[in-house]
Amino acid sequence: MANYLSISDILVTNEKVPCKFLHDLPKMGFLDPSAADDDLKAGTNVEIPLWLAESLYTRRPPLVGVDLPKIYKETYREILNADACTVDMHKLGQHFYELGCYIAKHDIKGEVATTLVNTFRQRFRMILSASVSTDSISSFQPLSASERDRTAAAVITEAALSGWLKRGDCPITTANMVANHRKRKRAEMEML
Amino acid sequence: MDPYEIEFIGENRIVSIIPNFSYDKIFLISGEFGPFRAGLPMNVPLWLAVMLKQKQKCRLVPPDWMDMDVLENIKEEEKLSRFFTKMPNEHYMVEAKLILGAASEDIPRAAEIKTIIKDIWDIRMSKLRTSMDALMKSGGSYGRLDHLTMMEINSVKPLLPQAMDELHRMKMMTRKSTPATLNTSTFSQSGSSQNI
Question: Following CA atoms A43, A46, A52, A56 in sequence, which dihedral angle do they give, to the nearest 10 degrees?
Fold first, then answer.
């Protein structure tokens, strides 16, 4: 999953997390947009991207302490544990699950992990119903990015199945692979 | 997989027909069939039977399980049992669709058979969906889905394995609390390359 070149991984680790700096950092004042002077004092709270936070966290001694972002804190965890299906995940955090996996390592109590898993399980039902619904736009709306991908795949399968059930005979069409192959050949020939 | 691909696989099943022409043995890639004698029943693959029927060269004999009583029994069993019952045939949906599509006049009470097979299909699909949901809610790691035909398995194909994969990944990633990852230099360039 954590592939260096994976686009979704890059997007996920670009999310900002609130951190507290544990040491004084000279000349790093530009990281905090509200700081006045050049140096960054210990104890300032800054929002920095996850990739930066992780690399600063893993040095010995750790330069930052990572806090949980808002959506993984107590209040939202309560809401998610109560009923995960009513939450608009797209608004809360598009990469909720992936970011949660990274964040869960910094969580002392370990409750983020259980919340993540529970939310995922409960929302599976939403994905199921979204895949067979006809109004795709409104049913896709509250899903996170990865949930949307899965639902799109399920929608395609459902459509293919119901199409097969309705039609009597199988219309013979060119396979996608073959059609693209021909187009590429034609393009190559035109270029020469 | 496309439903058409499963239909293709299902078309290879043997059914019995009564040709109305006479011909010698034919040698196909999948085997030899023949000789064709008008009026005598013989076994051929389903695709060949449908093709001959469309050219009006044969009459299809309904398979054993395509009988009202047998199907009624199956439907009752399916309704009562919590799990999936054994279907008469791995590809009952494919066979039913093709035979009833091409040769409905050869099958007695074809319309009723159509309805009852559709009922069985609907029962199994809804059972499948509820059991998928129960599977995710309970643990998401192990589920029992025996006696499912290929077409039904195909309908959950991209969704269920991907979802279980994601769940497994989340459990794995959050379980490994990396306490002291010293300078093992897996984080050379960016902190996101925490390869698990």
Answer: 0
Q: What angle do CA B151, B154, B158 make, to 5 degrees?
A: 170
User: How many residue pairs bridge chain A and chain B with CB atoms within 8 Å of each other?
Assistant: 126
One domain for residues A100 and A185: yes
Token pair of A4, please?
């260096």
The dihedrals phi and psi of B65, each to the nearest 5 degrees, come to -80, -10
- What's the CA gap between A152 and A141, in Å, rounded? 12
- ipTM comes to 0.73
A67, A83, A106: which is the final residue of a domain?
A67
Q: Nearest CA to A127 among A138, A111, A112, A143?
A: A143
Same domain? A81 vs A161: yes
- Structural domains of chain B in order of their starting residue, each with its CATH number: 6-61 (3.40.5.50), 65-177 (1.20.58.1020)
User: Tokens standing for A80?
Assistant: 């998610």
Cβ of A168 within 8 Å of Cβ of B158? The answer is no
User: Please, which residues bridge with residue B175 across strands?
Assistant: none
Residues B71-99 have pLDDT tens digits of 888 889 888 887 888 888 788 888 888 88
Q: Dump pLDDT digits (tens) for B101-155.
A: 887 777 777 888 888 888 888 888 888 888 888 877 776 566 677 788 888 888 8
Q: Which residue in the block uniquely carries the two structure tokens 């966290």? A: A57
Domain range for A15: 10-67
Contact A161 B3 (CB under 8 A): yes
